[in-house]
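=== Structure Prediction Worksheet ===
Name of assembly: unnamed complex
Input type: mixed (protein and possibly other molecules)
Chain count: two
Listed entries:
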Amino acid sequence: EDKVVQSPLSLVVHEGDTVTLNCSYEVTNFRSLLWYKQEKKAPTFLFMLTSSGIEKKSGRLSSILDKKELFSILNITATQTGDSAIYLCAVLKVGNEKLTFGTGTRLTIIP
Amino acid sequence: EAGVAQSPRYKIIEKRQSVAFWCNPISGHATLYWYQQILGQGPKLLIQFQNNGVVDDSQLPKDRFSAERLKGVDSTLKIQPAKLEDSAVYLCASSLEIGGGWGTEAFFGQGTRLTVV
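=== Predicted Assembly ===
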């Protein structure tokens, strides 16, 4: 059975801090790993990672994939209150495009 | 570009009643997903369609849940009869097939929050 495990489950930090969110996976026929941000109901897409060791960056957010150790990290630097959300990690399989999510990390930024 | 449309946004029903959710994916997206997200958990895949064919429905409780995607566009998800534990947000998502069995990231609708009392 495919598994996606995120840690920590919950994280509370002060504005300006840097955070690292973790995602590990056990999936057959792995194609890509995706990160989403969920503030209310609809998850919004952040990154899709397919190759190992290549960092993807968007403003203060960055992410990298390690296909040998089967994990990814999402970094957020200089956090702001608007970064408060649930961050979801998901894996996409080759062929059938099945998308399996982890439990998410709830990030709270204190002003 | 219009996003994934879902309705209704909210629904409250009594247990043992029936309910249906509707999803209109982004135009041209062949893959459509229905997820159930219970409070405090990640989205759980209920069913995945490729055009109007089912790719995966292994986690769909088929004794009470059903879904269809007629003509490979809109989709409906039905629960009959509902149980208290069905209270959740139901998310629909779609993605574009770009060939060779590969697709883009999934785009999500706003979801339907179902409360069963």
